[in-house]
C-alpha cells in the first residue's frame, strides 16, 4: 500500500512538472504569435491609413506651381513671393485644386520663411516650426500645439524647387503640410480596437494553453503506463522460471555424486523452464518489433494457401487428440500478407488447442463476402466471460492464470495477433461459440 501511494505521489509530481512545462511552451508560442500578429496589423494599418495622404504629397511635390498658387492664396501679399514676366502666358492657370487642410511654407536659400502670414507660420504655431535639411525629400510626421493647447498633427515634406525662367523669385525650398488629425483619431480608435481584441485572444490563449497541456500529456502518460506495466509483467513472468531453475540447480549440487539418470527429473524441469523463457523472450522481441511498425507486404493468394496451412493444423490436432475441420469458400485470389496472416492463424489455432478438452472440436472457415475476407476460428473449449473479452487482447492478460501457466501461455499471442490485423487494416473480435466455447472472427479488406 505504501509503495502504491509513493508511486502515485511520484506520478503526480511528474504530471505536474510536465503540465507546467508544456503549458509554458504553449503559452510562449501563443504570446509570440499574437504579439507578431498585432505588430503586423498595426504597421499595416498605420501605413495604409496615411497612404492616400502620402500619395497626394508626392503628387503635389512634383508640381511646385500648384504649391506656389496655394501659398499665394494663403498670403495676401503675393507680390513679395514671385513675379511673372509674361502675364499673357497662364503658367499658373489650370492647376489642380488643393484641399483646405493643405498648407505651404516657402523658404529662401537660408531657410528663412517667406510667406509669414500663412496658417502654419502664424505666431500661434511658428515656435514649433523648424527648418532642417536633414528631412529633405522625406515624408515625416510633425506635431504642433496651438495657443489653446490643441495638438495638430501634420504629414509634411520639404523639397528643393526650381521654377520657369519667366518666374522671378527667391524661393529655394517649399514645405507642404497636410493636416491628418481626423486620420490620426481614426487610427487611434482602430488601434484601440485591435489591441483590445488581441489582448482578449491572448487571455483566451492562456486557458487554451492549459487545455492543450492537459490534452497533449494524455498519450504520453498512457504510453508511460503501458511501458511500466509491460516491464512489470515481463519481470513477473521471468521471475518464476528463473526461481525454478535456481531451485533445480541447487538440488543438483546437493547430490554431486548422482548420475544424470538420477537427476533426470531436475534436468528435464530445468530444460522445460528454459524453453518457456525462450518462448517468452521471443514473443517479447516480436512485440517490440511490431511496436516499431509492421511492414505489410501484400501478395495474391488463393484457396491453396489456406489448404496448406490447414493440412499442417490437421496433423497438430491429431497429435493433440483434437478434432479439426475446415471450410474454404474462396474463389479466385485475394491480396494479403502471407507471413503475417499465417502467424495470426497459428496463434488462434494454438489457443484453441490449449484451452479445450481432449477430443473437442476446432473449426476454421475462410469465406469472401463482398470486399471482405472473413476468417473464423471456433472451438468448444472453456469459453471467455464478457469481462475478459474486453481485456483478452491486452499484453500478458490471461483468463485463468493457473490454467494458462499449466498450458505454457504468457498472454502475448492475442495481443500480437491484434497488432498484426490492425496493421493489415482489418478487425478481430471474440464471440461466444454456441453452445460452448469461443469464436474469433477476422475481417480483412481484400
UniProtKB/TrEMBL annotation:
Gene3D superfamilies named in the record: 1.10.287.130, Histidine kinase-like ATPase, C-terminal domain
Compartment list: Membrane
Organism, scientific name: Pseudolactococcus paracarnosus
Domain (Histidine kinase): residue spans on this chain: 233-446
PANTHER family: PHOSPHATE REGULON SENSOR PROTEIN PHOR
Enzyme class: transferase
Membrane spanning residue stretches: 20-42, 192-213
The protein's name in its UniProt record: histidine kinase
PROSITE patterns, per the entry: HIS_KIN (PS50109)
